[in-house]
Design a protein that fits this description.
The two termini are 25 Å apart. It contains 24 helices and 15 strands. α7 packs antiparallel against α21, α12 packs parallel to α14 and α19 packs across α22. It folds into three domains: 179 residues, 4-Layer Sandwich (Aldehyde Ferredoxin Oxidoreductase,  A, domain 1); 188 residues, Aldehyde Ferredoxin Oxidoreductase Protein, subunit A, domain 2; 157 residues, Aldehyde Ferredoxin Oxidoreductase Protein, subunit A, domain 3 (Orthogonal Bundle), CATH 1.10.599.10. By secondary structure, the protein is an alpha+beta fold. The strands form four sheets. Strands 6-5-10-7-8-9 form a six-stranded mixed beta sheet. It binds iron/sulfur cluster (SF4). Iron/sulfur cluster binds next to loops.
Length: 594
Amino acid sequence: MTSGESRVVPFGDKFALKYIGGRGFGAKLLFDQLSNIKDPLGPENILVVAPGPLTGLYLPGGAKTHFVSMAPLTGIYGDSNMGGNFGTELRQAGYDALVIAGLAERLSYLWIDEEEVAVVPAPDLAGKECLEAERMVKEKLQSEEVRVASIGPAGENLVRFATINTDWSRNAGRCGMGAVLGSKNLKAIAVRGGKDLPVADVAGLRLLTERSMKELSSHALFEFWQQQGLMSVVDYVNSAGIFPTRNYAENVFEQAEQIDGFRMEKEYKIGDTACFGCPMSCGNICLVKNGKYKGTIAEGPEYETACMLGSNLGVGDFAAILRGNQLCDDLGIDTISSGNLIGVMIEAVESGLLKPSDVDGMKLQWGDDGQINVLLEKIAHREGIGDLLAGGTRAVLARWPQLTPLVVHVKGMEQSAYDSRSTISMALAYGTCDIGAHHNRAWTVGKELEAGGSWKAEDRVDLVIYHQTIRPLFDMLGVCRLPWIELGFDESRYAEYYSVVTGVPHTLDELLERSRAIWDLTRLISAARGVGRKDDYPPPRMLERAVEKGPYVGRVVERSEYDEMLDLYYQKRGWREDGVPPAGRARSFKDSLG
Ligand code: SF4
């Protein structure tokens, strides 16, 4: 970005097969640059944008693009992915990964096609919301076919949980990847390509996908999934008693029916959207037809947003959540981190730990969606209290250490929308997640609830490690995990896909082994920043404060039980007791791109 120059670096088969793509490519490229990177928001930090070898192909969910960087929110290894069409287009332009470094003199966008990569100054994009920026870039390029990933005001203002947005509301939401773009004066990346994607065995790919489509579409829950997408999770989680409510104090929300998937379907949904080529079409386009938010139209919310901008803030009005969702998409901020931090602020004011004068005179209270929307704007524009909140949990704790019992985070990342006191394996999943307290690496709730209390530490550790291996494999291949999670799609099918695409036969176990190695690699990156056992614990709210409502009243994460799991977890990973991979492990990643 500094010089405006670019170069193309080919990589060899050995590199491609070892790191696979997506998160694997990103982690390796970041590892190679680590010693040069001082500050995630410094020009020396790199942002790797990498789809996977299955992105853009004819198969369910082959639509994901990964963004990998040192994370502004946590200061350690970070990644986040988006669906939509962006990654497909990038591959069709001829690229498996972009590595973006430096700092442009003026606000710019990056233009990429099969012939050129250009840094184009565009100061008129300053302050534009994500969707407007996307529209303006398309207009400048005089093409509706161009795919654009953009940031909103939050990314420009270096909000540490700023997102990157594409196709209206597909977001790389976590870790603050939008702030990395902002720190480089990069407002958007626009890409156009028309190349065929490399597939060794096209007939084999077609056969596999015909089988996959048949299996998915005959699944008993296929239509229900299309109708509700991730909103179908609200009822399950609430009735299971793990639905974070009022800053994780309670686990059942009395107004859940007002904000669940059925309510959405009945009163708000007007259409579906899907990522590239995906038959599951889980995006819900919703419109508010009456009331104070009349006219609001947005894609979403997904489950996490319904919880974090809904029950977690005491909001039982679907229209208000949709408006909050739309604001976050437009401003370019993560709904999970935002809802989590605002929950802490409301509780702090309601409990008297903070005074209204600490929060710009706002008398914050549960369920006040008007105030919540004001806070979202303040965060994105770094106004008043929003400037502090824009720094994330760590900044809040640095100012007000007395809020330690209230904040729910791991490694500086605000926890997502499943309580972990009722299913202790989920506490381990959050605690050991390589980017912080995010659910996407391991979601063990369902299996542990099914087991009905019969699980020992080893059952929990085994499931967490399996999830932390299979799910990141999806992130390396560039596919969506939802067909597997929601419709029981057979994970070994992905080894078949990878085999027909590369022309090199692979078993699932071989791919899992590579994913497991990348888990070591991301840990090594963070360990170089001081991460170890001390960072792998649940927050005080999970360890010390009992659940107040729901079937798990009185439950906390027992520290001795957690320690037992953590010891076993390190043993099974072959890490030292302090949570760091042994010294020799790093050597296996010293290979070159060739
Ligand atoms: S399941 Fe949903 S999020 Fe995943 S690729 Fe398909 S449409 Fe996109």
